[in-house]
């Protein structure tokens, strides 16, 4: 099988499983929506500062991804199928495949939660294109790093509590810049002045992808 | 080292350099007052020294007003709703974040900053450190 | 010989203390509190050095898979963490003296807390993995990530967000901000002293750690 088709196989396996049970999407979405409801109840429409709105959105997204993304490797470890993956695929293929799986998951969740957030918190979204671009680029970096660290955490004990602690400091740059950029998308007259923030997010995603591919080999191989 | 590592590290290094460079413009761009005034209501950061005797609080609106003078000598009136920091009058320089509207710089954030020069008690001085506070 | 080195270092650090508190003149504006710079900056610098050491040895762990390298990586990370704690505490005392609050959730303070969290997570990870070979590999991977994030937290964040924290010593124009000669002398004397102290402590700690691990049954 070719390199790409193995990646496809990894993705397809998880996708099929997902479509049958919809476990990951449901639980992540549920968590995300619950967070959103709590924030919405407590603040209602009273939050008008775009920076605060932006920050809350990203807090919700980050914590939901911390809940939902590690599953990708934890379930393999729990079922004992990690070794199957090790035998059949090269580490790079597993990494890219699992990252894609997480990316699809996160995109599905964000596609539902972001509009919901905008409606419930009365956010005036002035620049849709900039907003979508920000979310996309930030999610890329987020997913890559989370997938790498999911593999680390799957092989340890106390995974649920360890994962957020491990992942958040490494994701700090993405978090800070994404909050800044989304804030601009909400309010600023000309967010494209701040396109440098988007370039930063792209650089982070690229560096994370390359660095992650190198490091994953050491995390995954026995 | 294998070729893929060399290429990979080069890519990562390039990303880091470009990434940090991208943040440079977000890192302390203190605009001269003339530029701040021409900024079309864009939010900017300015820094200047306080023009003595021009600090006041408007009792009705609760706005605080003072005059700043930048390095080029331009003077600018600043108003803000924020409480002025406690060492305000003695600060050597003040940083304000906000935008220029209708002849006045409306600041959303005020910071009184001591200039960063360690000198014997002859001129201004301030503590510096490389990291943690 | 070791006693000689230890004594020499002791005298050096005593000299640093004298220099910081007596010899150097107080700076204008902040008076005696400015003396903190002679302690706070070298401690922070030592922390950065330690984290870089950890980074280098972690890479070696991945390449050579030897426990010996892991000992050094872990010891370096531990020292980095402690020195970072010291830097935070000295900073907090200075903040109290200057702005009357120990802690302000200023961007610089936030980024230092995150740095502490990173390395605490490193040790959390280490304790969560039982298999030794896996432990050193996973820990090394995380130490590498942590060391890459460290410069962002220490150098970039405070320049990005407006902070009450004073500007850094090597500022944009590249010139040193210590104008008085005596201050320069004490500062570099202190920096050198703390650096030497770091190497000495690192060496000692590695030897201790090796013994501890042998006792615990590791293959070192």
Order of helices and strands of chain B: HHEEEEEE
Average pLDDT figure of chain B:
72
Question: What is the string of SSEs of chain C from the N terminus onward?
Answer: HHHHHH
Low-pLDDT windows of residues of chain B? 119-133
CATH class assignment of the largest domain in chain B? Mainly Beta
Tell me the quaternary state: heterotrimer
State the largest interface.
Answer: B-C, 32 and 51 residues
Shape assignment of chain B: elongated
The tally of structural domains of chain B comes to 2
CATH superfamily of the largest domain in chain B: Nucleic acid-binding proteins
Main β-sheet, spatial strand arrangement of chain B: 1-3-4-6-5
* Shape category of chain C: globular
Q: Which structural class do the helices and strands of chain C define? A: mainly alpha
Q: What class would the helix/strand composition of chain B place it in?
A: alpha+beta
Describe it.
The complex is a heterotrimer of chains A (about 220), B (about 130) and C (about 220). The radius of gyration of chain A is 18 Å and the shape is globular. Chain A contains 9 helices and no strands. Chain A is about 85% helix and about 0% strand. The C terminus of chain B is likely disordered. Chain B is elongated and about 70 Å long. With about 130 residues, chain B is an alpha+beta fold. In chain B, about 30% of the residues are buried. The longest helix of chain B has 22 residues. Chain B has 2 helices and 6 strands; from the N terminus they run ααββββββ. Chain C has one domain. In chain C, helix 3 packs antiparallel against helix 4 and helix 3 packs across helix 6. Chain C is globular and about 55 Å long. The two termini of chain C are about 25 Å apart. About 5% of the residues of chain C have low confidence. The interface between B and C is large, with 32 and 51 residues.
